[in-house]
Here is the input.
Amino acid sequence: MRKLAAGNWKMNGLALSLPEARDLGRMFPSPACDILICPPATLIAQMVWTVQGSPVKVGGQDCHTKVSGAHTGDISAAMLKDAGASAVILGHSERRTDHGETDALVKAKAEAALAAGLIAIVCVGETEAQRDAGTTLDVVGAQIDGSLPEGATAANLVIAYEPVWAIGTGRTPTIAEIAKVHAFIRDRLTRHMGADAAGVRLLYGGSVKPSNATEIFAVPNVDGALVGGASLKAEDFGKIVAALSAAA
Ligand SMILES: O=C[C@H](O)COP(=O)(O)O
Here is the structure.
């Protein structure tokens, strides 16, 4: 499978300047992995224009369940697609926390994304309290069961495992812990999708940076990364893309 380096700019404007984004595409004219940048919605169309002709793709950070209608402030998957996005992050822990998003809502959003022809990047992960209670696999399993969209295939679904306590903290699980959770997710997906689960890309997210990327990308069932802070600097994100390309 093609591995995936995805950058999530979150609510940061021109974090990676547009010329830098264009340069990122030039740095990797034929990368051995897929590269995706998910800027704020206001920058999607501009980013699509900026990276056109390069291997860099652009994605959204959320979408509504409906195609259109009276939903002030929301953006539909179809609108993301129209703007040139090819994927959308769904169920990120910050949305689950800030907006009370449930597994059922994430599933409905993911189904809307698939209907619009987008790749759904569904995020799962335990809080620190859940980890300390030894319930990581129970939590992640329930999130997979509840958030997985109908119609998911290896081509249109990506799962991102992001321990909430590792996001933006500089802390990461041990390599053994990442391996254990990713193997568990693969197994859980197989229950739902059968053999197709083998081709679903499983991203690790949470304090991925140039200094730990190579080690994390060597873990079985880690098929790329969802990168927050380190995607805001072209140089750092470029190094992570290079590490993933080397692991491909
Ligand atoms: O979506 C990205 C994740 O929340 C990871 O963020 P981080 O790399 O800043 O820890």
Remarks:
- The beta strands are 3-8, 33-38, 56-60, 87-90, 119-124, 157-161, 201-205, 224-227.
- The chain has one domain: 3-247.
- The longest helix spans residues 175-193.
- The radius of gyration is 17 Å.
